[in-house]
Amino acid sequence: MNPQAKADSTLEVEGTKLTADTEALEVQEEASPPVVEKLTDYSNSDYYINRELSNLQFNLRVLEQAANEEHPLLERLRYLLIFSSNMDEFFEIRVAGLKQQIDFSREQVGLDGMQPQQVLNEISRITHESVARQYEMLQEQLLPALQEQNIRILRRSEWSEEQVQWVSDYFYSEVMPVISPIGLDPAHPFPRLANKNLNFIVSLEGKDAFGRETGMAIIPAPRSLPRVIRFPPELSGEGICFTLLSAMIHQHAEDLFPGMTIKGCYQFRLTRNSDLILDDEVEDLATALQGELQSRRWGKAVRLEVADNCTPELANFLLKEFGLTQDELYEVNGPVNLARLMDLCNLPNLPELQYQPFTPSFPKGLMPKENLFDAITSNDILLLHPFQSFTPVVDLLRQSAKDPHVLAIKQTLYRTGAQSEIVDALVDAARNGKEVIVVIELRARFDEEENLTLARRLQEAGAIVVYGVVGYKTHAKLMMVVRREDGKIVRYAHLGTGNYHAGNARLYTDYSLLTRDKDLTNDVSKIFQQLTGMGKAVRVKKLLHAPFTLKKGLLDHIQQEIQHVEAGGKGHIIVKCNSLTEAKVIKELYKASQAGVKIDLIIRGICCLRPGVPGLSDNIRVRSIVGRFLEHSRTFYFANNGEPRVYASSADWMVRNLDHRIETCYPIEHPKLAQRVKKELDAYLQDNCMSWQLQSDGSYRQNQPRANQPRRDAQMQLLIKLT
C-alpha cells in the first residue's frame, strides 16, 4: 500500500477510526498486566460491541484490500466488488431486519444497549462514507491503473465513430428486442421493480402517438443481459476495451420513446428485504420454501442507489415511491450495480494482474486415485483447504459409489454448488444400489432454490432425501460410508468445517478429517439417526453437538482453563472462527481473562467482545485475517495444563450456531495432527501483513512488521509449506 493510500484509508466507526496504520503496531506482550480491580458487572453495555456495526467493520476491512498495492491489480478490483456484494446482503438481511423490528414495534436491544434506530443511524453514517470512498477508489485509483494496463471501460464520450456504430448494431440486435420501457400515467402505474435490478428513470418532454404527455418513464434493464460488454479486438486497439449496458441504454434512450425528447436519463437500483420467514408448523417445507422464494425479489425496500447526476426532483420522486428517506439514498459516481463487473477480474492471460495460480497438494503418503479405505485405515487424514486438495473427499464418495462392499452412504449438504461432483457421486451411488441418505438444508440463505433442484435430482436417482429438523438449520458437515469388511460392518467418516463445495474449497480455508475411528464414526452414525428419525437426544462419546452439548462443552473447557490457573498452572485458549456473539461464552471468556488465562481470538468477522478493557479483558487479544483466501475454518485450542485439547467445528460462537442449528465439533486426537493445528494457529497469531487488531474502543488497526521484523503472511506461509 503506498503512503498516500495509507494516509487516506480512514473511516469513522462508532466514533473511532478504522485505520491502516503506517507505523508498526506493537503486539501485546505476554507479560502480566498491572494489577487492576476486577470488573464484575458483566451486563454493562460498555463491555460489548454492537453486532451489526462489527459486521459492517468486517466489510470495511475487505474494502481496504482494494487500496492495498500488495495485491495484484485485478484482485484489488475483486475486493472492491466483493465489498459491494457483501453490502447488498448486509442491507437485504441485517438492515432489513432492524427496520422490520421498528415497523412491528418489536425492538430488540442487544448486549451493547443500542436501540435499532440508533444502529440504523450509525449504519447510515458509516455506509455513506464508505460507499463514497469505494467509488473514489474505483474512479481515481483502479480504473486509471487498469487503463495503464490497456484495460479500459469506455464512457460514451470516449467511443470512436466505429465503436458508436458497433454499439448501435449491438443495441438493436441484442438489447432492443428484450427491453420494455414503461411510461408512467394513470393507465401505467409505477411498475413493481425487482430486488437489485438495474433500472433507469427517464424525464420526457412531448406527446406520444396517443396524445399522452406523461413526463416520466422507467426502463428496467433485463436481467438476462450482461452488464459489461466487450468490444471486438479490431475496435480495441492494442488493449482490451469494454463498455457498460447502462452506457448503451443511455445512448439509445430516445430510440425507446420515438418522437419524444429525453430531458434526463439516470440509472438507479433498489435493494429489498430478502430474508425468508417460514412457519415452524409448515406441513411441507419444500413446498413452503418454493412459495417464499417467489416473493424474495419483492420484499420491502431498504436502500435506493442512484447516479450522482440524478436531479433532486427525480431522486425524491423515487424515494417517495419506495417509502424511503434521504438517509436511505446513496448517490454514486459510477455504475449502481458494481458487483456485476466481476467478470473483469477473471480476464485470461493476465498473470501479472492476478494471484499466482497454485495446485493444492496431497498429504504425504496419499496419492491421487489411491484406495482411500486403505489410506484412512492406516491413519486419520487431516486436510487444510485450499492449500491441500479437496479431491480425497470427493474420491471417497466416488470410490464408495462403485465399491461392491459399500452398503450405505449418508451425507449432509448445506451449500454444494449447481455443478457438484459430490452430488454426481451420490447419484451414481444411488443408481448402483447403495443406500443413500442425504440431509439437505433447504434454508441455506441464497442457495435455497439450488438446493431444491439438487434434492429433486437425488430423489429421482433413488436417494432418500430429508430436510433436517424444522426450526433448526442443519449446518453440520458430515459424511459417513458404511462398508462390510471381513464379515463385519466398518464405518468411515468425513467431518469438515466447510461446505461440500469444490469451488469454495479453492477459495475458503477449511479443515477436513477423514477417519474410521470407532467411537467417532459411531457418534456420526447417531447424529444421522437423530436427523432422519425421531427420539430423545442421542448420547455421543467424542463429538460435541449443537443444540445439545456443544455450548456446554465449550463453557466447560473455558472453566477448566480457569481452574488450571487458579491451581497455579498456566491457561491458554486459542479460538479461530468467523464470528463471536454468544453472551454466555463472552462472559466466560471475560472471567477467564480476569483469572489470568491467556486468550487469543482469531475472529474473521463479527466480534461483540471488547478486548483489552482493564480489569475485564486484559488478557484477551482479538485479530481478524483478511487475505487472499476467505478464512472459514473453526478451530479451538485449550492448553489443558500441558495436555492440549484441539477441536475443529462447523459452528461459529454465535447464538444461532450454538442454540438453533445442528452443528458438530470434533476432536483432533492424533498428537501429530493436533500439534500441526496448533502450529497453523500460531502462524495466524504471528501474521503482521494481513491481520487487523481489534482495539478496546472497538476500532481495528492493521498490523505491520516492526523495524527489522520479517514479514509474516500466514496464508502465504501455509501456501508455501503445504503446496
TrEMBL record:
Its EC number is 2.7.4.1. Residues 162-344 form the Polyphosphate kinase middle domain. ATP binds at N86, Y508, R604, H632. It is an enzyme of class 2 (transferase). One of its GO terms (cellular component) is polyphosphate kinase complex. Mg(2+) binds at R415, R445. Transmembrane segments: none annotated. Residues 371-535, 543-711 form the Polyphosphate kinase C-terminal domain. This is Polyphosphate kinase. GO terms for biological process: polyphosphate biosynthetic process.
